[in-house]
Amino acid sequence: MSQIIRRIGVPPSQRGSTGGGNCPDIFELADGNFAVIGRDATDSLAPDLPSDASRADYERIVVITRETLIRAKPDIPDV
């Protein structure tokens, strides 16, 4: 497994999270991939996946807030 090298976007505390219950986050990994902390919505969203989308048994559908992604946008590399 790769190592986290930096947060993408602002910390949850800057998005209004004052406790441990609402802390979606995005991290860049040393191998160039990204890790996401979010709410597991696999059971509720899997039936709605488009016909050309799929997921492996070990993959989960994770939901993050719109604000989390928008505030991360400036930190997401173009390439």
Q: What labels describe this entry?
A:
single chain; 79 residues; alpha+beta; 3-stranded antiparallel β-sheet; two-stranded antiparallel ribbon; 2 helices
What features would you describe in this structure?
The protein has helices spanning 42-45, 66-72; strands at 4-7, 25-29, 34-37, 39-40, 62-63. The protein has 79 residues and is α+β, with helices and mostly antiparallel strands. A hairpin with a 4-residue loop joins β2 (25-29) and β3 (34-37). The longest helix is centred in the last third of the chain and has 7 residues, at 66-72. The chain is globular and about 35 Å long. The mean pLDDT is 90.
Q: Average pLDDT, to the nearest integer?
A: 90
Radius of gyration: 14 Å
Gross geometry: globular
Secondary structure class reads: alpha+beta
Helix content: 10-25%
Range of strand content: 15-25%
Strand order of the largest sheet: 1-2-3
For the record, give the distance between the C-alpha atoms at the N and C termini, rounded to a whole number: 22 Å
> What's the total count of β strands?
5
Q: Report the biggest beta sheet as strand number plus sense, adding barrel if it closes.
A: 3 strands, antiparallel
The string of secondary-structure elements, in order, is EEEEHEH
Low-confidence spans: none
The DSSP helix count reads: 2
